[in-house]
Write a structure and sequence with these properties.
With 314 residues, this protein is mainly beta. The chain has one helix at 261-270; strands at 27-31, 38-42, 49-51, 60-65, 71-76, 83-88, 95-96, 105-111, 117-123, 129-134, 141-145, 147-151, 157-163, 168-174, 180-182, 196-197, 203-210, 213-220, 226-228, 235-241, 247-253, 278-282, 289-290, 306-307.
Length: 314
């Protein structure tokens, strides 16, 4: 594994430099603007927002577009535990796919490239598991032990994490053979690694610990070359690539509250408007800055701000 030199510092871009960016793109993100956590469709160009889930008695998390943009997978606790659901892109025709009971928690769904399967993580069990399910329902299948799974667009690779002696590292699994290789050697004690494939499946973005903070990195799936993208000295997590591979959204917060039960309880109770905004940067790490349309009232959960796969083609 080859590691490139870390950046010495990183200037944050001025908001006025990005007026009118991302025209034609749309994002899915969780928001607490209605009191509970709902999934909103956001136009980052004009700031318009539409509540897609509209279920005030529950909380919704981890939205994920189907490859053709027609459906959305997400998780919800509306039946008492966080299970997997799918809905049309306009929020209609909601269908529940998993029916696990607490303390099991379904999280981080991602779609296979043919749109026929959804891979997801299952926490609240020991060990944590990676699973897949047909989008039309039926029992789910266990793929193996691991956390934060994300399937490549071609469906041939699965990125995930495992805890080693001192923390979490990133692994890749060949879905056809089940063969596994470790692609990062540094062990991140804080978690929130959340690996995610670039649209071409050649690169994985992930978070790693640097001097007590979390920064974003990429690793080549083929060569193992590692690049550090951010040096913001906070907690950068939950990267998501634009469909053209030019941009990356991510979440930025001032503490790893998910590792401290008391602090986590306070963070969720406060629902502080600026606690975990969405940031944007070039895919090479250039010009990181808050995305103004998602700077306030984002959910405190670890959802990614995921991009409409059709971009401006609608």
């Amino acid at each position: 594994m080859i590691r490139s030199q870390s950046p010495m510092g990183q200037d944050r871009a001025r908001p006025e430099e990005f007026s009118g960016e991302l025209k034609g793109h749309r994002l899915l993100m969780t928001s607490v603007r209605t009191g509970n956590t709902e999934i909103f469709l956001i136009d980052p160009y004009d700031g318009s927002a539409t509540n897609l889930t509209r279920n005030p008695a529950s909380h919704q998390r981890y939205p994920s577009w189907s490859p053709d943009g027609s459906r959305i997978a997400f998780t919800s606790d509306r039946d008492g535990a966080y299970n997997l659901y799918v809905m049309d892109a306009d929020g209609g025709n909601v269908c529940q796919l998993t029916h696990d009971a607490a303390p099991h928690v379904v999280y981080f769904p991602s779609w296979s490239g043919d749109g026929k399967r959804i891979v997801f993580g299952l926490a609240g069990c020991e060990p944590a598991l990676m699973c897949e399910i047909d989008v039309n329902g039926g029992p789910y299948r266990i793929l193996g032990e691991g956390r934060d799974p994300h399937i490549s667009a071609g469906g041939e690779l699965l990125a995930f994490t495992r805890h080693l002696g001192a923390g979490y590292a990133v692994f890749l699994m060949e879905t056809a053979s089940g063969s596994i290789k470790q692609v990062t050697s540094h062990e991140n004690p804080m978690g929130a690694v959340t690996p995610t494939f670039s649209p071409d499946g050649k690169t994985v973005a992930y978070s790693d610990a640097v001097d007590g903070c979390l920064e974003l990195f990429t690793v080549s799936a083929e060569s193992g070359e590692i690049r550090q993208l951010t040096n913001l000295r906070q907690f950068a997590t939950c990267a998501a690539w634009s469909p053209d591979g030019k941009w990356i959204t991510f979440r930025l917060t001032d503490e790893d509250f998910w590792n401290h039960p008391d602090r986590m309880k306070i963070a969720y109770a406060e629902r502080r408007a600026d606690k975990r905004p969405v940031w944007l940067m070039g895919a090479d790490g250039s010009a990181p800055h808050p995305l103004e349309a998602l700077r306030y009232q984002c959910g405190i959960d670890g959802s990614r701000a995921v991009w409409d796969p059709l971009g401006g083609e609608r």
